[in-house]
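Changelog entry

Holo records now carry the ligand SMILES as an explicit input line rather than a separate metadata file. Below, a converted record for S-adenosylmethionine, shown in the new format.
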Amino acid sequence: MKQMNSYIDSVFLNHDPLLEEVILSIKENDMPSISVSPSAGKLLTMLVSISGAKNVLEIGALGGYSGICLARGFGKEGNLTSLELKEEYAKCAQSNLTKAGFGDQVTYMTGAALQSLEKLADEDKRFDFFFIDADKDNYENYLRYCIRLAEPGALIVADNVLAGGSVADQDAEPRRYTEIMKKFNATAADHPQLESLLIPIGDGMTVSKVKKP
Ligand SMILES: C[S@@+](CC[C@H](N)C(=O)[O-])C[C@H]1O[C@@H](n2cnc3c(N)ncnc32)[C@H](O)[C@@H]1O
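Structure line, unchanged by the conversion:
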């Protein structure tokens, strides 16, 4: 998996000084190095751009790496709402989105994402693209909320669904969240309101389209 990703990165990605600075700012602020991989970030940009999504919800901001990738997909016309547990991470992400030129198009909601999602549902908010990349234990809860908040035809993308390859490879070292991801993938695959597929980029991304009624 690692070899495959290095190959994809080397062939399909160009030097990206802005995103490299984001990675540096994350290190400098002693935050964990758990942003999406460069190719996974490029896939997010392409999915937002191809789908024409303009109202994006992200669950798990960290330092804004994936936020910038998502915002690049909608460019000047679109908005990102990003949910992040930690105030200081949201501040770092906001600063990086501002450097990238998207400062006026992003709103951060801090605290536990489940509470923010309930608030968005209460306010009858709707989104046409979702990116789930926070605490794994809540992935299925997040998926339920995303479906509730989705415009018909919306895309829901979830990261880390291969759990380092351990969901598929019995010889791979199991991760704490291997079984959680197996269950999440099965739910996304069998859900009557979703059309889903797993794309093995980075640590794996499940892409689900919310069916139109
Ligand atoms: C893998 S990182 C996100 C990486 C980011 N999407 C990127 O690629 O640039 C996961 C983030 O989820 C946040 N998080 C963890 N539990 C959360 C919760 N219950 N509610 C909201 N955010 C949470 C963490 O603080 C962390 O910043």
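Spot-checked after migration. The pocket of S-adenosylmethionine is lined by residues 34-36, 60-62, 65-66, 83-86, 89, 112-113, 133-135 (CB under 6 Å). The first helix runs from residue 2 to 12.
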